[in-house]
Each structure stands twice: as C-alpha cells, then as structure tokens.
Amino acid sequence: MQISVTQAKGQLTELVRRAEAGEEVVLTRHGRATVRLTPVERRPTAAERRAVIAAVQAAAANKITDGPSAARSQDFLYDDDGLPA
User: What is the side-by-side order of every strand in the sheet holding 2-4?
Assistant: First the structure.
C-alpha cells in the first residue's frame, strides 16, 4: 500500500496496525516513495521463553551420563600402602 505523508498523518494508528500485520506500507512525498513502515522483530512472550528454557533443560537431561565415582577419584595419588605415589 502506498499513501502520501499528508494522508498518513490522520491514519497513522491504522497504518501501524497494518504494518504490524505484515502488510507493506510505503509513505510517499510528491509521488515518490520515501519511507517504508515495517514491524520491529517481535519479542517472544514470557510463556515462549519458558518453553524454550524447558526444551533446553529436557535436552540436557537426556545427555547426562554417569561419570567415574568421586569416591575413587584420587586413588591414583596414593600407592597400596596409602602413601603418596
């Protein structure tokens, strides 16, 4: 949609709504296109952010594997008599 700047002054709210909905709105001056109204990137809602965090946590939980036992982690530091190796 193309509209002159003069006409747009009275319809700005409606033009912004249309641009937010994805319609291309071009403002003209003396018949030449000068400005295009485009929506700013939509920010995710709190619920969408929580869903992403939950998905990442679930994926991480599936990757957890049992590692070596911490109780035996320092055995290599000592010999059979309990002295430093």
Answer: 2-4, 25-29, 32-37
